[in-house]
Amino acid sequence: MALELVASQHFDPSLEEIFRHGLQLARASTAVPWWAPQRTRTVQVRLRADGTTPLRYRIEGPAGAQRLLSINPFGPDVSVETARPIADTPRKHTVRAEFVLRGRPVAPLRKVPLEPDPLQPLADAVSDLKAELGDLAEIRLDIQQAPRRALRLRRRQLLADAQQAARAQAQRSAHWIRHGRPDSLLAHLSEQLTTRSAGPGSSRRMFIPPTPRRVDEAQTLGKLGDDADDQLVRVQLLVVCQADQEERAQARLTQVRAALDVFGGRSRWAMRGWQLGPWRVGADHWLNRPSFERRWNLGHSQPPRSNWVRMEELTGLLKPPTRNCRLPLLASDLPSFTFGDPQVLLQGAYRQPDGSERLVATYADETFFEVGVGKAGGGKTERALAQAIGWAHAGGGLMFVDPHRDSWPRAAPFLAHDNLMDHITLIDLNGLGPTPKVSSWNPISMHHGQAPHDVVESVTDAYAAALGWNDATAPRAMTILTAALTVLVAVNTAACQAGRPDDQTTLFHVRALITDPAFRSTALALAEESIDEETRAWWKAVFPTMSRDAYAVVLNPIARLSANPITRAFLGQPIGTYDIRAAMDSHTILWLCPGGNGPTDRLLTALLARDLLRAVRSRRDLPEHQRAPFRAYFDELITLTGSAPETIAAMFEDFRKYKVHVHGMTQLLARLPAPVRLSLMQNASTLATTAGSMSAIEPVTAEWGGSPSPERVATMERFSHYISMSVRGRRVGPVKVRGPHLDTVFGAQARPRQVPDLEKAALSAAGARPLTKLTDHAATQLSRVSAFLTEYAPARLTLSKEKGYQ
After folding, report:
1. What pLDDT shows up at residue 227?
2. Which residues are paired to 94 by β-bridges?
3. Nearest Cα to 241, choosing from 433, 92, 441, 60?
4. Residue 337 DSSP one-character state
5. 61 with 43: CB under 8 angstroms?
6. Would the N or C end of the chain have less CB density within 10 A of its end CB?
7. What is the rounded CA–CA span in Å between residue 259 and residue 54?
8. How far apart are CA 84 and CA 4, in angstroms?
9. Is 168 exposed, middle or buried (0-12, 13-18, 19+ CB in 10 A)?
């Protein structure tokens, strides 16, 4: 039977837990029938690396020991799974080695601390394995409970050898005495000179013949003493390294051999065999290879006579890698980024143990929400742009919201491809240049077939979020705005049904509805059958009793939007070309630059954010498999969330189920509103930070349990990131990566000469027109709406007045 132990990132066992596991393995080695040969009474620990996994930890033993070995001594941080048989493909070159204990036979191996992990040298030795080159390194440690008879025999041999050595030493000393020969040349010369000076009558000193030195049993037996027989085991250590190139296999064995030196003290692990110049007779020699292959293939254990160890000497090999072991990130742990692959999302450049760099990625369907934190200029936006450009070239749809517009000229050269131009839309509200072009959007238009109550709720909630309204602080303002929008949406519905969508009202007609009795009468008459009874009663009984001062809180924000020519042109058109729902469903690449962060800009941003939330939730009308994945990148989250905190928080909570994923960048988590910050950190699939101040970094490192420390992150070089990611349902990292630079990663895709054509196509797709034309059209929209109302509402106007509308 075989088990595989998989440790979590928090695995940090104590010496006692490892010791108990070792005793468990030793006991399991005896779970065989009484008639089984001694060589089969073993449990095997296999440490294996083949370039697809860093270091697999596997235990194989007798079938009768399955219950015993399935007991997990390490708790919830280690999962014990039934291991599948390993099917190796043949490699061209194989090198073998068997290790034996050399040095003083009863001396213990070096006591290696658990921090850093004793397996770290082995992990480093196999960190640069290349699966494509056939690299493989495997260490097998066979643990065999020592037969008591063999242990007693070994002790007797050691005591007999020590006594024989003591007797031989005594005999040598007596020999020197009998022949009058002192033990040293200096003493001999001194004695000769003394005797001659004393004359012929002098006599020599008398010596008592030495007796054999008493053997100190504790010192002679050392670790083989009889105080704890159960802790003594015999071990067999075999190593095989394979590769398609002979030099790689030989180099790997040398690295593994050097890694085992960490256990060396007065006793050490050494390769079995002997060497004479360039010739070596070891496990690979034709004389020894059959025995090695038999033990390797059949799992037999025939350890050398010197391989006696105590459990505490094996603590480094009796457990999987712990949290104190730095394991390399292989392609199986973190996939590599491939240009044009829609299944992966670029994250950064990871430096591998051999010094090379690999572009790493996460799986797109697992990267739901992403948070990037760090100081200005640290590389947050550059990394997000690289990710968005890679996603765009893979055919994905996205929305990049940048209040400052700096991201567009940076990304444009890498998006200026013929196959992308038809899918890119640029909505720029910064009004740059002598003849700026602006797109259009009518938040209350009904020509797209939205539900009227959804539109009214979306716009009202956006106003409330931006202006801080709620039922306690501004109940009358929310009531007035809701009632006004209900009527205007009903008018727009009627206009669309009449085939005249160009005569729809806009947000700026709220003022006319509230302050112009003639306009209000015709509008209410047209909307008579569309609005509910409660709204009709409010306009009939409540509105006439209100003073004009009650309208100011509603009309003032609209007046600010109207005073700005950009927002006036953008929001004042009856039919807007901006449709985020259509963009999501058609894989559009939308670049949205609201411009500025003043009160008016915040209100516009709140309207856009709330419309995004409404559009995403409206995807419930599509089956899940028909919802095209869409990614929203929010640069400068502090600016965006200041106007719509609850809306942005709801995005991080709801969007996953509709296949819309949000990526946010901010300089300070602490400056984000509490609802946004909590939802962000709770649902983040990817969490990244660049260097910054200690106070700004600590909330991020706290999510990682303080590793790496804030001090280490704060002193990182520019464009470096620590990132934790979700890959196949488990967290990977935090890992240090270098942020992707567009000129390096996508240098081959740069088309700077086609940028003018891209901007022209992107503005055309957004329906952008000269600002002056849009402003003039918005100024005359009220007269067109009034004409429509006059034409379609006269029959209802008399009835409306009879019912009491004012």
Report:
1. 65
2. 242
3. 92
4. P
5. yes
6. C
7. 15
8. 9
9. exposed
Give me the DSSP letters along 650-705.
HHHHHGGGGTEEEEEEES-STTS-HHHHHHHHHH-SEEEE-S--HHHHHHHHHHTT
- pLDDT for 803 equals 47
pLDDT of residue 185: 56
User: Using CA atoms, how far apart are residues 480 and 43, in angstroms rounded to an integer?
Assistant: 79
Closest to 307 in 3D by CA, of 367, 278, 267, 352: 267
Shortest CA distance to 96 belongs to which of 244, 227, 254, 238? Answer: 238
Question: Residue 805's pLDDT is what?
Answer: 45
Which pLDDT value is given to residue 257? 92
Give the relative orientation of helices 407-415 and 755-765 as an angle to the nearest 10 degrees: 110
Q: Are strands 720-727 and 730-738 parallel, antiparallel or unpaired?
A: antiparallel
- On whether the CB atoms of residues 359 and 745 are closer than 8 A, the answer is yes
Sign of CA dihedral 288, 292, 295, 298: negative
What does the buried/exposed string (b/e) look like for 583-601 if buried means 16 or more CB atoms within 10 Å of the residue's CB? bbbeebbbbbbbbbbeebb
Map residue 387 onto helix, strand or coil: helix
For the chain (806 residues), the mean pLDDT of every run of 10, in chain order, is 88 90 90 88 92 88 88 87 85 92 86 90 88 90 84 81 80 66 57 57 54 73 71 91 91 92 89 82 88 92 87 89 86 86 92 85 90 87 93 93 87 92 90 85 86 87 81 83 91 89 91 89 84 85 84 87 89 90 91 78 84 88 89 85 79 87 88 85 88 87 86 88 88 88 91 92 91 90 89 59 46
The pLDDT value given to residue 260: 92
Cβ neighbours of residue 494 under 8 Å, at least 6 residues apart?
A: 526, 527, 530, 792
Q: What are phi and psi of 457, to 5 degrees?
A: -65, -40
| Residue 598 structure tokens | 């003043």
Query: Taking Cα atoms as reference points, which of 337, 554, 526 lies closest to residue 459?
Result: 554
Query: What string of DSSP letters covers 20-89?
Result: HHHHHHHHHTT-S-TTS-GGG--EEEEEEE-SSSS-EEEEE--GGGHHHHHS-TTGGGEEEEEPPPP-PP
SS3 310: strand
pLDDT (0 to 100) of residue 200: 54
Q: Classify residue 135 by burial, with Cβ atoms within 10 Å: 0-12, 13-18, 19+.
A: buried
Tokens linked to 382 = 């550059």
Describe the chain by its helix, strand, coil percentages, rounded to 5. 45, 20, 35
Interval 297-325: pLDDT, tens: 999 999 988 888 888 888 889 999 998 88
Residues 39, 300 contacting (CB under 8 angstroms): yes
What does the pLDDT read at residue 386?
93
Residue 432 makes CB contacts below 8 A (sequence gap 6+) with 405
Predicted local confidence at residue 762, as pLDDT:
92
Q: Which long-range contacts (CB under 8 A, 24 or more apart) does 205-209 make?
A: 207/177, 209/174, 209/177, 209/178
- The candidate with the shortest Cα–Cα distance to 474, out of 562, 556, 550, 561, is 550
Residue pair 369/663 in contact by the 8 Å Cβ criterion: yes
Cα–Cα dist 242/252, whole Å: 8
Number of Cβ within a 10 Å radius of residue 229 = 13
142 bridge partner residues: 44, 236
Instruction: Give the residue among 142, 132, 116, 137 at the shortest CA–CA distance from 54.
Output: 137
User: What per-residue confidence (pLDDT) applies to 226?
Assistant: 66
Cβ neighbors of 662 (< 8 A, separation 6 or more) are: 369, 370, 631, 632, 634, 651, 652, 655
Q: Which helix (H) or strand (E) holds 242?
A: strand 232-243
Q: Specify the pLDDT at position 209.
A: 64
408 touches 402 (CB < 8 A): yes
| Adjacent-strand bridge partners of 281 | 274
